[in-house]
Amino acid sequence: MPDSFIPTSAELLRILPEIILVLAATLIMVLAPLVKGREQNALGYVSLYGLVAALAAALSGYFDPGPAFHQLILVDGFATYFRVLVIFAGILTTLASYQYLRREDADSGEYYALLLFSVSGQSLMAASNDLIMIFIGLEISSLASYVMAGFLRNRAQAIEAALKYFLLGSFATAFLLYGVAWIYGITGSTYLLTIRSVFERGAQTPGILLAGAAAALIFVGFAFKVAAWPFQSWAPDVYQGAPVPVAAFLSAGPKAAAFAVFVRVFVTALGPIGGRWEPLFWLSALATMLIGNFAALVQTNIKRLLAYSSIAHAGYVLVAMTAHSEIGTAAVMFYMAAYVLMNVGAFAVVAHVCGRQERFVELEDFAGLGERQPVSAALLTVFLLSLIGVPLTAGFFGKFYIFRAALQADLVWLTVLGLLASAVAAYYYLRIIVIMYMHQPAESAAELPPLRGALGAAVWISAAGTLVLGIFPSLILNFAGNSALLAR
Amino acid sequence: MDHILSIVLFTPLVGFLALLFIPSSKPAAIKLWANIAGFAGFLVCLPLVFAFDRSRDFQFAEKVPWIPSIGASYNLAIDGYALLLVVLTGLLGFLSILASWAAIETRLKEYYGCFLLLQVGMMGVFMARDFLLFFVFWELVLVPMYFIIAIWGGERRVYAAIKFIIYTLVGSVLMLLGILALYYEHFRQFQVRSFDVAQLMNTQLDPNLQWWIFWAFFVGFAVKVPMFPLHTWLPDAHTEAPTAGSVILASILLKMGTYGFLRFSLPLLPDAAKNPTVIQVMAVLSIIAIVYGALVCLMQKDWKKLIAYSSVSHLGFCTLGIFALNPAGIAGSMLQQINHGISTGMLFLIVGVVYERRHTREIAEYGGLLRSMPIFTIVFLIAALSSMGMPPLNGFIGEITILKGAYQVSLWWAGAVVLGIALGAAYLIWLFQRTMLGEVSEKNAALKDLNAREIAVFAPLLLLALWIGVYPKPFFQVMDRSVTQIVELVQPGAHAGQMVPNRLASLQR
After folding, report:
1. How far apart are CA A20 and CA A22, in angstroms?
2. How many CA atoms lie within 13 A of B218 on its CB side?
3. A76 within 8 A of A480, measured Cβ to Cβ
4. Interchain contact, A430 vs B146, CB within 8 Å
5. Which element (helix H / strand E) includes B391?
6. SS3 for B116?
7. 10 Å Cβ neighbour count for A443?
8. Phi, psi of A440 (to 5 degrees)
9. What is the distance in angstroms between the Cα of B169 and the nearest Cα belonging to chain A?
10. Count of other CB atoms within 10 angstroms of residue A102
11. Which residues of chain A lie closer than 8 angstroms to B66, CB-CB?
12. Is A442 within 8 Å of A310 (Cβ atoms)?
């Protein structure tokens, strides 16, 4: 075996977060049979510690940037940002799951192991520098999340959700792989930077005409993961069927990772042929925003409503991608952080209110929450206001940066329509607030325990993050701005 | 004194944060604390009045970088015009909290919390010298107001609240678009990212771009004013809001729109503002608002809705004065904004007083209140006279100054103003006659007159109305530099030497 096949310690350190996550997941799987029944809930702590350690490893990786494994992995500011983000989403999900699983009598180590495997895949995606590596990361993340969607296996809806997610997901991944094959055929490489340098030669590149088609095929794979038009239709069914904490996770982690590779592939590798894919993004962004927001207007189930809202938010991020500029990339990065905080926070409050077997997930079940549970209602209000994009919440600056980037790229119509669509969105978020504060308390409110423990921590952390990023966006914006340069 | 604006801005916020720690089970403590915080919020405004230097423009400036990468800063400063609005906000913010003592019995903590937050937002709007900061405060005002209408409002409160927020949101996203367009044009010319209004003023904008930005701003500001035909949220919101909410809506929130025109549209976009088409459109919309608002008032059966529509009419005077683009028109418009805050604030408080006693707003239900509530009748009479522009009260000074400005532009405009004043007198006197005079019914005979707290609420407003009416000179002097500056920016040299205050002071004598 040649020497270069043996990884050096520096290379291993660069995938330390993934190593920690996989080891923790394996440890949980080993421990699970030894721990009886409900005691398995304690394995949640292993998951939490593993995630925190991985978070620390991801942060420390920033101070030793560089490639690993023959350029398959690239640790830089951009990778660090998204690694930290997906691991953080994992932490919030773990916190939000603990009480939920106990309530459902579904305490189990497997759940946490699957979560960790999924996060490790997403973390790998964030640090990939090669199309094959991206594909591997995506598959690790997806396979675990398919199982998580159907985790409560005696619930018919959950099975349907998992099956739908799996079938459509694998179909989309096939498209992605086909696109990768085409790119390889055109450029002779799967390394992102090599692909870029081939395309930089411009019209002389052999097979350049097919590059647009290859970009479209890859777009299909990623658009499915972020639930963008025309591949958004799975999201409402899956979010509705999956357990609430899993829905929170699906809307945060896989989406953030998918946007990270979206940027890596399209801005870094396919950047030189931007003219060929930007119109596609323009159309998809607009359609995603419109479909998400208008469909959300008529929803009566809060999980479906949040699903459509997350479709709409993917549309906003696509607007920033369409801008195809450094500040566009920075806007994507900032928005994903804001989005993870506010969306997981909102789902966590739903996880608190929904009760055993998710009996209370209709909007009307939130009636009177403001009276019975003023704290939960106030925190959900913060998340909803942030989703609307009211100032002093993270959502405002997220939207602000996106539309600023779009305007700088002269996407005037997309900006106008996007802003109007986001004003429409105010209506359905406010409807939840109206129901919480102005309707008579519903049955669900009567037996609600106070918001405490791990779930309470998840909600409070998200709310604090949403407000801090809303008042001092510079805290992470500067980092995002500097890192965006890397994903040129 | 270095951070006096920050102190004024954050005093209500401190009050709000402390309020969160008072347990909901102690309603008296909550009420008391909210009143203390409101009063403190007003008191900290007063040093501004005494320390204000009339010979300088923007003062008490504070500037701290906020988001350096995009050039946004925490940048506060006020000129004379903003000073008046800040003090008015401080006063009415306190009075509306005081006026809620007996009216609100449910969810006190949330209620007073909303009012204190609202106060922060309104103060910020009038103080911000950074366009992004301005927008943040502008949007921030919406949220507590939405809750005030939606939770403590009348029967159709949910509809009114949603309508209010959707209208304003659509307006403000378009305004944001205008802000960004301006920001990029500035960046293109100077290669400096900045939201500082003073720096943005240096941007050379070609008339075509100015035209587009003007209309983008217009939507945001005109919804807030509200100008015809974007006014339809107002009657619902004002009628359904609780008394104190209506007072703040009418007295302060509407002024944010006219403030926007005077602070941003005119100075930043002078070519668009003096474009004949723009002036014509603005004048026509203002005149329609004046006349149509007054005519609708004549038809109203609902006391509160009548006052709400009178705001449409009165704000029409203000926008007409602004787009007269001469010193008299703008000075009159500024003063009339303060006047409207005082007199319409009183009129809404008056409706609140009878509503608390009878729980109906139907004008037909009342009559002969003079017998049972003599002090109240006198207060109402003064408020109505002030609102209809009767000397020696404040409304007269404002309307006559606007009339002068309008007359300098066109006889037609002046005619519309006169018609508006006449109609205003008609609907207010008729309202007074129907409610206060005539036979007193059994239900009304037993009504209690104003108590000490209610008198305390009205007293400062009555005094102010009289003060502005009799001796408006200090007010004009404070506004003088703001007016001259705006006029100079829009029409350089055209009105040199027309010092408004002195002329008007002589007119007064």
Report:
1. 6
2. 20
3. no
4. yes
5. none
6. helix
7. 13
8. -65, 145
9. 6
10. 15
11. 474
12. no
Chain A residues closer than 8 Å to B183 by CB? 404
In angstroms, the separation between the Cα of residue A457 and the nearest Cα of chain B is 20
Q: How far is B69 from chain A (nearest CA, A)?
A: 7
In a mutational test of the B interface, the residue from A329, A417, A434 whose CB has the highest number of chain B CBs within 10 Å is A434
User: Cα–Cα–Cα angle for A140, A143, A146, nearest 5°?
Assistant: 145
The pLDDT > 70 percentage for chain A reads 96
pTM for the structure as a whole: 0.88
- ipTM of the assembly? 0.84
Query: What whole-number distance in Å separates Cα of residue A238 and Cα of residue A148?
Result: 11
Assess whether pLDDT exceeds 70 at residue A3: no
Which amino acid belongs to residue B151? I
Reported as a single tens digit per residue, the pLDDT across A161-194 is 999 999 999 999 999 999 999 999 888 889 998 8
Helices (H), B21-79: 27-43, 46-51
| Three-state DSSP state, B482 | helix
Q: B415-426, pLDDT tens digit by residue? A: 988 999 999 889
Instruction: Kindly calculate the radius of gyration of chain A based on its CA atoms and give it in whole angstroms.
Output: 21
Chain A residues close to B177, C-beta within 8 Å: 403, 407, 415-416, 419
- The CA distances from residue B477 to A10, A45, B484, in Å, are 72, 69, 11
Chain B residues contacting A, CB < 8 Å? 24, 66-70, 107, 110, 132, 135-137, 139-140, 142-143, 146-147, 150-151, 157-158, 161-162, 165-166, 169-170, 173-174, 176-177, 180-181, 183-184
C-alpha distance from residue B147 to each of A237, B98, B116, B250, B359 (Å): 33, 19, 13, 16, 21
Question: Residue B503's pLDDT band (boundaries 50, 70, 90)?
Answer: very low
CB-based burial, A473-485: b 16+ in 10 Å, e otherwise = bbebbebbbebbe
The C-alpha of B180 sits at a distance from chain A's nearest C-alpha, in angstroms, of 7
Q: Do B139 and A390 touch (CB under 8 A)?
A: yes
Residue with tokens 């003073």: B198
